[in-house]
Design goal:
globular; Rossmann fold; 230 residues; alpha/beta; Heat Shock Protein 90; single chain; 2 domains
Length: 230
């Protein structure tokens, strides 16, 4: 814990903060790609082994909470990740407390989340369960489809990534609608907003841009479910 100017994080300024440090002794990050590691969809993994959304999501979460993140890495010597987060003012009578963000809640509806990034599945599942939804999350699209096929009436909504290895989001929509034509689907992607909005519209789905804003996710889920009940 510290206070005042912090050399690596000038944006924190004079805030009182908590610092989290995670390190490893792995291969390290090559200098030529270090500046790109927080870009959505940038990855050095082979096709089908990840889409590169993890660090982009982490940075978004940290920045949304007024914090900052840095990475120091050397080839063959490992990597050090440093995160600083300002300490919240817990005084209930303080006048400068940020206004609590309102997220529309659920009524126990069952949601199926499909994304090949484990972090995104867990984040979406955690938020929606806190908002009174029942959520099942899958990284394997084939397994998710089989789960849906086994009991399609048990789900009220599917939330799926558009670009995944083996089975695309559009294929998931086609398979799900073949099983149950009235199932609503929300498609998530980040490659090209305009193109993916068009594709989602053509599939009869709502669209959410990645990295996902949790407020937008909660509002879109509620909108889709309310529309279904009209």
């Amino acid at each position: 814990m510290g206070h005042g100017e912090f050399d690596h994080f000038p944006e924190i300024g004079g805030a009182t903060f908590v610092e989290i440090i995670v390190s490893d002794n792995g291969h390290g990050i090559a200098p030529e790609i270090k500046d790109r590691i927080f870009e959505p969809y940038f990855t050095t993994k082979d096709v089908g082994n990840g889409t590169g959304m993890g660090l982009a999501v982490v940075m978004g979460i940290v920045q949304d909470h007024g914090g900052a993140i840095s990475i120091n890495s050397q080839l063959k010597h490992g990597t050090i990740v440093r995160v600083v987060l300002p300490i919240a003012d817990l005084d209930p009578v303080a006048s400068d407390l940020p206004e609590v963000q309102f997220y529309p809640s659920g009524n126990g509806e069952n949601i199926l989340i499909i994304d090949d990034e484990e972090l995104l599945v867990e984040l979406g599942k955690d938020l929606l369960e806190r908002l009174n939804y029942c959520v099942e999350g899958y990284m394997d699209a084939s397994e998710a489809i089989e789960r849906f096929r086994a009991n399609p009436q048990s789900f009220d909504l599917i939330i799926s990534d558009m670009t995944m290895p083996k089975i695309s989001g559009s294929r998931i929509v086609e398979e799900a609608r073949r099983i149950r034509p009235d199932i609503p689907v929300i498609i998530c992607s980040g490659y090209s907003k305009n193109m993916d909005v068009t594709r989602a519209d053509a599939l009869g789905c709502q669209y959410i841009q990645k990295p996902i804003d949790m407020k937008i996710l909660s509002e879109t889920v509620r909108k889709v479910l309310d529309k279904r009940s009209i």
